[in-house]
Amino acid sequence: MPELPEVESARQALESALDREIQAVDDNDEWVSRPHRPGDIARALVGGRLVAAHRRGKTMWLDTVGPDGEAGPPLGVHLGMGGRIIVTGPDGERGGGEPVRPDRTPRKAEWDRFTMTFTDGGQLRLFDKRRLGRVRLDPDLSELGPDAETITREEFRTRVGRGRAPVKARLLDQSVLAGVGNLLADEILWQAAVSPSAPAGDLDGDTLDRLYAAMQRAIAGAIANGGAHTGEVNPFRHADASCPRCGAPMVHGTVGGRTTWWCSAEQS
DNA sequence: AACAATGTTCAGTC
DNA sequence: GGACTGAACATTGT
Questions:
Q1: Cα A169 to Cα A198: distance, rounded to the nearest angstrom
Q2: Keyword set for this entry (predicted)?
Q3: Tens-place pLDDT, residues A35-91
């Protein structure tokens, strides 16, 4: 599920885990917790607490303090391709930040890849069937571009509008701009009526501004409606679909290494 | 069985 | 050496 909108909702869920004493940490999944060894994260955090939940693009990190109140190592959290954050209270009920839509995903215990238990009995869990999520101490954020939700129009123009790579690849490049994923990218390009494979450096200022406006709307809409999959074109990303705006056939291919759908008439 | 999946990363190539 | 591409990563669902 996770693109910027889903990650923002996960970040909000993490806020209900703040200021609670950490009693235990299960960091035994060596893939999800790489490059740490099992027990490394537990040793660093047990006895302390989380004090703030941040997000940039699809990456989250939690500020921590030790038992003495001194700052501890930040804990980075990434949801990968399908991870989710679950925070429970003392009696096991769900914490805040739950998805707008009810969720029927089965909760197999083996899909909990990382678990933090608080002294009040509640938990913070990274639930991820595909196991591409990640948790690590002192995450490196230096390769991340500015957040897609707050980047300025000028910055968007100069960062996105360059290079020979397809504009979609540019939108997906997290070092250019952090937060846009595959569905959001297709939605933005369709809203702005721009071909996904147009070389980014060829786009004029008006086109880049249109992309910027479309991105802002797409992100705000997705946050309000519960996810990147709620975009307007999303229902038309399948064979035999017609563009909901002009009726021309929707077509697909691979652009920027990802499956891409676009309107054969308006985005040529 | 083969392939795609709302993501990231690393090894290659130009 | 930077920019760019494609495969690999772990796992599930179609």
A1: 10
A2: DNA damage, DNA repair, DNA-binding, Glycosidase, Hydrolase, Lyase, Multifunctional enzyme
A3: 999 999 999 999 999 999 999 999 999 999 999 999 999 999 999 999 999 999 998
Q: What are the structural domain ranges in chain A?
A: 4-137, 153-263
In sequence order, what are the residues at sequence separation of 6 or more whose Cβ sits closer than 8 angstroms to the Cβ of residue A93?
A: none
Which residues, by CB, come closer than 7 Å to strand B?
A 1-3, 6, 57-59, 78, 80-81, 130, 132, 143, 172, 174, 181-183, 227-229, 257-259
3-state secondary structure of A258: strand
What CATH class does A4-137 carry?
alpha beta
Fold for A153-263, please state it. Answer: Helicase, Ruva Protein; domain 3 (1.10.8)
Residue nearest to nucleotide C3 (CA to C1'): A163
Separation between the CA of A256 and the C1’ of C5 (whole angstroms): 8
Q: Which residues on neighbouring strands pair with residue A207, listed in sequence order?
A: none
Nearest nt (C1') from A201 Cα: C3
Rounded CA–C1' distance between A146 and C8, in angstroms: 27
Q: What is the pLDDT of residues A224-246, one digit of tens each?
A: 999 999 999 999 999 999 999 99
